[in-house]
Design goal:
35% of the residues lie in helices and 15% in strands. By secondary structure, it is an alpha/beta fold. A 14-stranded parallel sheet has the order 1-2-3-4-5-6-7-9-11-12-13-14-15-16.
């Protein structure tokens, strides 16, 4: 192969190939001579554009803009239609109106009192939901008239409820300084509801004064075939004259389905035709001359053999100011016990010993589960009646005694018969001593209240710490095998629920075979609020053996809690 000859890249820039030096300024005339020799066709000459072509171009642009606008609007319409079609594929939207209406009813009525804005919120979801809600009368059956619920709102709900049963509430509370006339508002509401009383299921009226109740209910002369619950509450009756004229006895027509009556300071003449076949009877706030006599209350109980709950509160002056129909010789001499086989709850708050004792002595309550005796002074006769009932049959599970006087011996005798008692509340009994707790700690001859799980000694300042500690320790499991979290060795550890249950059963069998008595239930809750004799260390000891301990924490200088 022959070698390639080398060529210098800078050889083209030799002195022989360089461009000549620029000419002097003497060559300028030659430039003018060249410009003068230029042809006329090569010079710039402005040309005029016709106006017709400009307008046509603008028209074409406008046409394109209009076409684009039409296409964009069509695109938006198609996009909206696409979104609707996609939403229609959702299972919620494809629900039938009947099923969606049932869901609304369960959701709204299942909330109890509920939220007043839940139905308007459902209507804001979409038009379909709004139509379904408007066509569901049950959602509008609860009507309220009050300071924050105007008449117009009640009128709309009344129209939308169509013909379904109504739950009507007229509530103006205890305030008397409203900027409007309460009597006028109540009368307007009654005029609105009067045509619909035939389908009223529950009716509640709460006003400040007795005259407003009388004016409202005296217009109620029609029958109420669907009425099940009637409540009348007067807030300031104690400030009025006790000689005020009572409401006429026939303020209401026939009420064949009435099962619940709650009256507070409402004297309707004690027409016994209204209080018949009731399931719930609540009376309260009767003072001076409007107080019902014991014979009147007992006559009401005789007409209600299916009664399940009775509550009497703030009834004073029973012996001094009897009110009600005159007692006949036959009714006063009758000693037949009223059999209330369905009575489960009884409450007596500040009713006087005479009324409470006469009622308890005239009724039989084998299925009573809830009893409250509060502010009754000496309740020894009532405890004796309770003991007599317990000798036959009683299933009491809750007992509350507050601010009453009794002997601890009679109280323990009653507790010895209440084997099913699970909650015991003894509140503000300053005379209650440690003898009471010692009686609950002894297993011979048998445990008192073996199923007791909750105990409250709120305000009982005479109890000693040693007796309370002995009571807690006596309610603990008898041995480590009786409580699965306590282990003495590796062999006693259980790894399954069935093994733990079997160990618990063996412990009970072993304990019963040696002592003959089953162990009591472990205490789950205790309340030592306002028991100032118990220190913080004592409360901490209780927390180690009781799951829930309620107590009153001490406050620091700035009002915050100083104890954990």
């Amino acid at each position: 192969m022959s070698p390639v000859p080398y060529s210098n890249p800078l050889s083209g820039f030799s002195s022989s190939n360089r461009s000549p030096a620029p000419k002097s300024y003497n060559s300028v005339p030659n430039f003018h001579r060249h410009f003068l020799n230029t042809r006329t066709d090569d010079a710039y000459v402005p040309r005029a554009v016709p106006q017709e072509k400009i307008s046509s171009l603008r028209d074409e642009i406008n046409d394109l803009d209009s076409q684009m606008a039409n296409l964009m609007s069509r695109r938006q319409a198609l996009k909206a239609q696409l979104e609707r079609e996609v939403r229609l594929q959702s299972p919620v939207i494809r629900l039938p109106s009947e099923l969606l209406s049932s869901i609304f009813i369960m959701g709204v009525l299942g909330m109890g009192d509920g939220d007043p804005i839940i139905v308007p919120t459902l209507m804001l979801v979409c038009r379909y939901w709004a139509e379904v809600a408007l066509n569901t009368p049950v959602l509008w059956a609860k009507i309220t008239v009050g300071p924050h619920d105007p008449i117009e709102k009640a009128r709309r709900r009344l129209e939308r409820s169509k013909s379904c049963p109504l739950d009507i509430t007229v509530n103006f509370g205890s305030r008397i300084d409203y900027p409007f006339s309460v009597s006028e508002q109540v009368m307007t509401a009654m005029d609105l509801f009067r045509p619909a009383l035939w389908r009223t299921r529950t009716f509640s009226l709460s006003v400040p004064n007795r005259s407003q109740v009388h004016a409202a209910l005296l217009q109620w002369k029609d029958d109420a075939p669907l009425l099940e619950s009637l409540s009348v509450h007067i807030s300031h009756s104690i400030q009025e004259d006790h000689q005020a004229t009572p409401t006429a006895p026939s303020f209401i027509g026939r009420t064949p389905r009435l099962r619940s009556c709650s009256f507070t300071s409402f004297n309707f003449g004690w027409d016994l035709r209204l209080l018949t076949n009731l399931r719930v009877l609540k009376l309260g706030g009767y003072f001076n001359g409007s107080t019902p006599s014991p014979s009147t209350v007992i006559a009401v109980l005789r007409q209600c053999p299916e009664l399940e709950e009775i509550a009497l509160r703030n009834i004073s002056g029973v012996d001094s100011y009897p009110c009600g129909p005159p007692e006949s010789t036959e009714s006063s001499s009758s000693t037949r016990v009223i059999q209330l086989h369905r009575l489960k709850k009884a409450s007596f708050y500040c009713t006087g010993n005479a009324l409470a004792l006469q009622i308890m002595s005239q009724i039989a309550f084998p299925k009573l589960e809830h009893l409250e005796l509060c502010y009754l002074q000496n309740i020894n006769p009532i405890l004796q009646r309770l003991h007599s009932q317990a000798l036959t049959k009683i299933s009491l599970k809750y007992l509350r005694i507050e601010s009453c006087l009794f002997t601890e011996t009679s109280f323990l005798n009653v507790l010895r018969r209440l084997s099913s008692l699970a909650t015991l509340e003894v509140v503000d009994i300053e005379e209650l001593s440690s003898y009471f707790l010692k009686g609950l700690s002894v297993s011979q001859p048998s445990w008192l209240c073996p199923r007791l799980e909750e105990l409250s000694v709120d305000g009982c300042t005479s109890l000693e710490w040693d007796s309370l500690r002995s009571f807690i320790e006596a309610r603990l499991p008898p041995n480590p095998n009786g409580f699965t979290r306590f282990y003495t060795s590796a062999s006693t550890m259980t790894t399954s629920a069935s093994a733990a249950a079997a160990a618990q059963a063996r412990a009970k069998a072993h304990y019963s075979s040696h002592s003959g008595v089953l162990p009591p239930t472990r205490l789950r809750s205790i309340d030592v609020t306002r028991c100032t004799q118990f220190s913080w260390e004592m409360v901490q000891w209780l927390k180690m053996y009781v799951a829930e301990v309620r107590y009153e924490t001490s406050r620091g200088v700035w009002g915050d809690s100083s104890l954990p």
